[in-house]
Amino acid sequence: MPLSQRTPTYTGRFAPSPTGPLHAGSLVAALASWLDARAAGGRWLVRIEDVDTPRCVPGADRFILSQLAACGLAPDAPPVWQSQRTATYEQALAQLIDDGWAYPCRCTRKEIALALGARGETPARHGELVYPGTCRDGLHGRTARAWRLRTDIPVPVRVLDVEQNRPSVLAKRTKFATNSVATGFIRWTDRRLGEQQQNVAQAVGDFVLKRADGLFAYQLAVVVDDATQGVTDVVRGEDLADNTPRQVLLQHVLALPTPRYLHTPLVRGADGEKLSKQNGAQALDTTDPIAALNAAAAVLGLPPQLGTASDALAVWVLQWGARWGAGRGGPPGALYNRVP
Ligand SMILES: [Zn+2]
Questions:
Q1: What single DSSP character describes residue 191?
Q2: What is the Å distance from ligand 1's center to 111 Cα?
Q3: How distant is the alpha carbon of residue 99 from its chain centre?
Q4: Does residue 184 sit in helix, strand or coil?
Q5: Which uninterrupted H or E stretch holds 317?
Q6: Which of 178, 197, 283, 326 has its CA 20 to 30 A from that of 332?
Q7: What is the pLDDT of residue 80?
Q8: H-type helices in 40-161, by residue range?
Q9: Ligand 1 mean position to 165 CA, how many Å?
């Protein structure tokens, strides 16, 4: 039966940022998400995450799509560009403002650092400032620069309708739900990393939804897009595992389904950090697709193949399915917000 005539129970996606061509590290995530979708008999989508337009490189999106195609990784539907979906993000933000989850913030980075310093707190090692909540009680006549999500309100508990793969919303104004759990505390099960948890309020604080430059934050765009595209399974690099609790929290407050997550091993540069353009990642050479695919497969623990890319992919799909199974790790959204 053609794919379009089935109701897919699995939808996966690869979501590259067009800040440059694919490199060896990004192919690992692309290959893993493609294999997972194929092993599950599901759909595989590509979404160009160009929401942070100043960082995007013109033409990189088309080049990435050509690199994927050269490796035999073709999406089952035309790609989606985040830069064309601003109206949808605007709606989601309006809903969050309506429901009391989002508030305007006037603080500059310097003011946030000063406020933290006054409390005797030093910024985290990677320079991410845990927002101290300065503007929760209003702007006091100053102009809004950004919009933030409150993490100091108890996270609502949702009842998951497994058959429908969507949460039954207990109450629209979920912050008043009586059976709520710890403030900003998110727990989820990663198919590879196992049980994960984070107190978003402590680790990140009230995070930005819409930036001072008017652009929507990555976290909001991803959550809205995954829901709009019916994504059931997110398979991506482990460097993004740390973003998952913020995204799960947003799914809760927007009453959207929580997908299953599988975070793949990273390819590291000579400095031990995730391979990136900054530490010398070369653009992926797809003139020899099987060589590029074999290198990515090795990171995923899959044995090298001879022959064509499509032969190799067919073998790996079986091996991937045997190892990870479709849906191993429970139904989407399971265990997402239990208090330990
Ligand atoms: Zn503020």
A1: T
A2: 8
A3: 23
A4: coil
A5: helix 309-324
A6: 178
A7: 97
A8: 60-70, 86-98, 109-118
A9: 36
